[in-house]
Write a structure and sequence with these properties.
By secondary structure, the chain is an alpha/beta fold. It is built from 10 helices and 11 strands.
Length: 278
């Protein structure tokens, strides 16, 4: 509920765009996903929280408003064979899925030359194939109910390549092609798509990123430590979703690089090669 007052000073009830909606969030155990859960719970949504770490998910759930209304559903984007069963379980429990926030993923900190194809494939499996597999599992229910909104968390690295991000950037680029096609195909069924590309956001994504050995980077990069707060990122994201924006950039001055690349490509390449990789 959004409390507000009219010009005469009388209380007016304004329903939130997300109130009473069934919302499934992946990557909900930390960072942007956990902050999504917090803000959406405050707006009156009923949440399905998914990630690999069941313990962390339950800790997030306990801190949410009306925590008893929400549901933790363990999910590993690297192993998508059970996604149809999970989607069926959600629909049997809640009768519908109004929003799917595809937020889960894995970053990278290694050069092309030192990164094995196995690591490339793993990042692609999690960030792209796991992502679209869940969408494909949910899509038949959204088509049947003639409504639904799919939100995809890409990255500014999905707009252009960057140091130490080859596989990550490729996986995020791929999401654009898939979801722009889906947007066009399913508009007739009342299904909406929003692709969000965050820039430097203050989360622990760099700590969990894969290095050349396939182990975690384990370092809080300067770019993340000095980035926009997850709280502000999610506020901007939810505003864009409520306005049915198809594509939204979120961040500070770094997102200007996207426009510079489009309109002044020579300048872009001079600037980008001087940026710190971390």
């Amino acid at each position: 509920m959004n409390p507000s007052y009219n010009k005469l000073g009388f209380f007016v009830y304004t329903m939130s765009y997300f109130e009473n909606k069934i919302i499934w969030i992946t990557g909900a155990s930390s960072g942007i996903g956990a902050e999504m859960a917090k803000q959406l719970a405050e707006k009156g949504a009923t949440l399905i929280l998914s990630a690999r770490n069941a313990t962390a998910l339950n800790l997030v759930k306990k801190e949410l408003k009306n925590s008893e209304n929400h549901f933790c559903l363990q999910l590993d984007l690297e192993h998508s064979e059970n996604f149809p069963d999970l989607a069926k379980q959600v629909v049997e429990k809640y009768a519908k899925i109004d929003f799917l926030f595809n937020n889960g993923g894995l970053s990278q900190r290694s050069t092309v030359a030192e990164t094995s194809l196995e690591i490339d494939r793993r990042i692609m499996e999690i960030n792209y194939f796991g992502n679209i597999a869940l969408t494909k599992a949910v899509l038949p229910y959204m088509i049947q109910q003639k409504s639904g909104h799919i939100i995809v968390i890409s990255s500014i690295a999905g707009k252009f390549g960057f140091f130490l991000r080859s596989a990550y950037s490729a996986s995020k680029h791929a999401l654009y092609g898939f979801y722009e096609s889906l947007l066009l195909e399913e508009e007739k069924n009342g299904i909406r798509v929003t692709i969000a590309s965050p820039g430097k956001i203050n989360t622990e994504i760099s700590k969990h990123a894969l290095n050349a050995e396939g182990t975690t980077h384990g370092i809080m990069d300067h770019n993340q430590a000095t980035g926009m707060s997850a709280e502000e990122c999610v506020k901007q994201l939810l505003s864009a979703v409520s306005k049915n924006k198809k594509d939204v950039l979120i961040g500070n001055k770094e997102i200007m690089a996207v426009k510079i690349k489009r309109f002044f490509p020579a300048l872009f390449w001079r600037i980008i090669k001087k940026q710190s990789a971390t």
